[in-house]
Amino acid sequence: MTVTATSTPPPAAPKVSGGKGGRTRLSFPVVLLIVAGVLLALSAVRVITGAEDITSAGQISAALAMAVPIGLAGLGGLWAERAGVVNIGLEGMMILGTFFGAWAGWQTDPWLGVLAGIIGGMLGGLLHAVATVTFGVDHIISGIAINILALGFTTYFAKLWFNSGEAAAKGGSPKQSPPADDITSVTIPGLSDWLHSIEQHHWFFVSDLAGVIGGLVTHVSLLTILAVVLFVLTFFVLWKTSFGLRLRSCGENPVAAESLGVNVYRYKYIAVIVSGGMAGLGGAFLSLVTSHIYNEGQTGGRGYIGLAAMIFGNWRPGGLAMGAGLFGFADALQLRNGGESVHALLLLLVVALAGLAAWKLYRKSFVQGVVSGVIAAAVLVWYLATDTVPTEFVSATPYIVTLLVLSLSAQRLRMPKADGMRYRKGQGK
């Protein structure tokens, strides 16, 4: 009896994105045009409203400092979710990073504090990996549990370690650590002063551009530069290496990846532990660069905002960096100049919503177009009827921006296909 062997036909070639019906990716020149357009709009708002601070070097420098921990948390989320693991526990891993970073930083060297913060976050990531990958616990439940555990752990040990002995003598208390030394910051000599002199002329667009560039080259922490390098390395590792291809395959189709010999558990563990390390580094940035101390509650939900930035960026480093910059700008704005600057940006919001309404109506999305137009009209009435924004609204600006951005960008998102799904070893055999 003869047995006829059947062969499996090769898979169809993937569609190339960017064509009809595919997803287009923004090229670098297009991104530069978008940035220039945004800067033009901000410059116009500054001239019309007189809110000089919205494009100043100080505002941009503060926005960069606020964006780094958000971006690092989002980068951690990107690593985990590209491997198929939802990491809601980023907030807790950031809390561990702030605590261990400050604990080691004030006793030794701030760079050892950075390393301790990364390790603290990695321990949180390891716990999340054990729960979700090995034991198959629901990813959301595990992440929330880690957030609660991290908060309880740091609250208890802050009272134990920072409220007695040498720590108390140097300024420690049950809710904060003694201050740590500064991490070196760099300024490009000559260029910073020249840009500052141009900014002081308040020329349309030119002074705004000088303020933006000046904020990026003045008193920049070495940890900020490290964060930028990590974004570049993440793109290279995940999209330009075979390791990254295997890791991303675990987030798209782990059964197919296992059938091709990929150790799915190993890659998921690596991704989630790296994710925790990134979040821990973001937490260490908060306690060693932003404030120089650990302070209870200082993460302020930045782990969740980092997840929002990752989603806004469509699970890619470039878009994530833009989202983190936007949220960091909103955060810095409400901290520096409060109601007046936020009130000025209401005018920019009116223009953006009106443009969105026109675009939706052109695309025959009548309901969304009308809703956007009505909101734009309401915001315009608010802007014309007031001179400032209430303090309660100002403090909520970063979170309101998060909700607006996610609601406006939700239709173009494409998450990894197996993100958040439970996977058990052996399914591919």
What does this structure look like?
The protein has 429 residues and is an all-alpha fold. Helix content is 69%, strand content 1%. The protein contains 18 helices and two strands. It has helices spanning 28-49, 57-82, 90-107, 110-134, 139-161, 165-169, 191-199, 206-217, 222-240, 242-252, 254-259, 264-290, 302-312, 317-336, 338-362, 366-385, 391-395, 397-409, and strands at residues 185-186, 220-221. It has a two-stranded antiparallel sheet. Helix 2 packs parallel to helix 9, helix 2 (57-82) packs antiparallel against helix 12 and helix 4 runs antiparallel to helix 5 (139-161). Residues 1-23 have low confidence and may be disordered.
Q: Secondary-structure blueprint of this entry?
A:
Elements: H1 28-49, H2 57-82, H3 90-107, H4 110-134, H5 139-161, H6 165-169, E1 185-186, H7 191-199, H8 206-217, E2 220-221, H9 222-240, H10 242-252, H11 254-259, H12 264-290, H13 302-312, H14 317-336, H15 338-362, H16 366-385, H17 391-395, H18 397-409
Helix pairs in contact: 1-15, 2-8, 2-9, 2-12, 2-13, 2-14, 3-4, 3-5, 3-12, 3-13, 4-5, 4-12, 7-8, 9-10, 13-14, 13-18, 14-15, 14-18, 15-16
